Every structure is written in C-alpha cells, then in structure tokens.
C-alpha cells in the first residue's frame, strides 16, 4: 500500500502504475529536502500498517471473496465516474479547456449510456480517462509541494496535496449526499481501492516505507507533468 491508502482514487493509481519501475534512486540530498519529517512519517507508516492488517486488509479480502471481478470492476467504474467532475474543473483551472470539454463528454456518456458509470462506455468510444486534482493544479500554479507527509489512516501525501484533497471534497458528489449514503460511499470506495492492491503489494520489497514514498513522489511528479519527460530531478523540483 501507499502507507495505507492514499484515500482518493486518482492518486492511488500511483503504486499500481509504478510497481516494478520505481526505485530509480534519488540522492540523499533530495531525500532530505523532500522528507524532512521522516521519523514522524515512519511512525505513522507503522501505525497505518497496523490498522491495515487488523481491519482494512481483512475487509478487502472479504470484499474480493464475495464479489466477482465484473462486479468489482463496475464498482470501480462508478467511483471513477464520480471523480470526473474534479478532473473537469481542474482541467479548466490548469488552462486546458480542450481536455476539460473532452472529460465533460466522458462524464455525460458514462453517466447516461454507461448507467451512472457502471459501464465505462466512454473509454470504449476512445475517450480515455484523465486524472487531475487540486494538488496538481496548485503545482501548475507554482505552489511548492512542501514536505512529504504520511497522514494517519490516509497514507502518503504532502502539504500541497493535502490541501488539494480537502478542496477536492467539495467537487465530489457524495459529499453532498445524505449522511448514510455519504458514509457508505466513502467506505465502499476505500475498501474497493484497498482490494485493488492485494496482489500488487506482494511486489513491494526492501524498505517498504522508502519504496512507497518514492513511488508516490515520482507518480505525483509524473501527473503534474502530464506524463511528459523531464530531465530535471522531480524530487528536487517538486
């Protein structure tokens, strides 16, 4: 896991995408600048791992055992669709109206033809999923990342990304639902995300804290650059 869970779907694709390709190194100076809170972070990482082993992982295993893969995929599609408004808003805030309009089309198609996002019809029509959030927008606007931070019960984050996550709650439709539905939506998404990592986490070796931290930082830098190559060191620049 990324500490425990990143907590928000867009950023929790990080370890899934980067497993096997991260651990590219990074000098000691970069680590000191990016992770000055390492002693505290390691304690929170250990705490989150304990909570995960006692609660989240068993729930995720039960979720996988009870629901077949097609049903779990549909659940994930619904939450991906619910996160699309956040992506749309941030596309425009980052000065990418073309991408924003494309994601509006994706949201409309999946919310209607795709039955509230159960089926990802848009991707099959050539409208691939984008991931944009307020943390990325703040980075584009020049706000520094601040120190890497492991948040209790949430996992890998940073000062800038944490502020972005709070802002993202206001563009996430379940936030405005009745209390019971809102709670159920957040818990279900959390468990669904954890279930996606059951197989992937087996590939995490060595110092798990360093592995997950570096995966998170590199993935965030990659998202901010929209996947474009950068000759500079992302750990120093971001």
UniProtKB/TrEMBL annotation:
A Gene Ontology BP annotation from the UniProt entry: intermembrane phospholipid transfer
Superkingdom: Bacteria
GO CC term, one of those recorded: membrane
Keywords noted in UniProt: Lipoprotein, Signal
Residue intervals passing through the bilayer: none
Classification via PROSITE patterns: PROKAR_LIPOPROTEIN
Pfam families associated with the record: MlaA
Family: Belongs to the MlaA family.
Protein name: Phospholipid-binding lipoprotein MlaA
Organism annotation: Chromatocurvus halotolerans
Lineage: Bacteria, Pseudomonadati, Pseudomonadota, Gammaproteobacteria, Cellvibrionales
């Amino acid at each position: 896991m990324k500490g425990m869970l990143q907590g928000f779907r867009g950023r929790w694709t990080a370890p899934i995408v980067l497993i096997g390709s991260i651990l590219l190194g990074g000098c000691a100076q970069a680590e000191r600048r990016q992770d000055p809170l390492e002693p505290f972070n390691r304690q929170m990482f250990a705490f989150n791992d304990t909570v995960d082993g006692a609660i989240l992982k068993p729930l995720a295993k039960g979720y996988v055992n009870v629901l077949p893969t097609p049903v779990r995929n549909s659940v994930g599609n619904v939450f991906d669709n619910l996160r699309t408004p956040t992506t749309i808003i941030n596309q425009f805030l980052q000065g990418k109206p073309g991408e924003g309009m494309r994601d509006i089309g994706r949201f409309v198609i999946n919310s209607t033809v795709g039955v509230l996002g159960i089926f990802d019809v848009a991707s099959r029509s050539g409208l691939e999923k984008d991931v944009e959030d307020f943390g990325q927008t703040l980075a584009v606007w020049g706000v520094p990342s601040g120190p890497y931070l492991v948040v209790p019960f949430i996992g890998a984050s940073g000062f800038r990304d944490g502020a972005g996550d709070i802002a993202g709650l206001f563009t996430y439709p379940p936030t405005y639902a009745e209390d019971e539905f809102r709670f159920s939506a957040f818990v279900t998404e959390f468990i669904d995300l954890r279930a996606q990592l059951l197989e992937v986490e087996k590939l995490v070796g060595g110092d798990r804290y360093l592995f997950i931290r570096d995966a998170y930082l590199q993935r965030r830098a990659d998202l901010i650059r929209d996947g474009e190559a950068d000759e500079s060191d992302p750990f120093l620049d971001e």
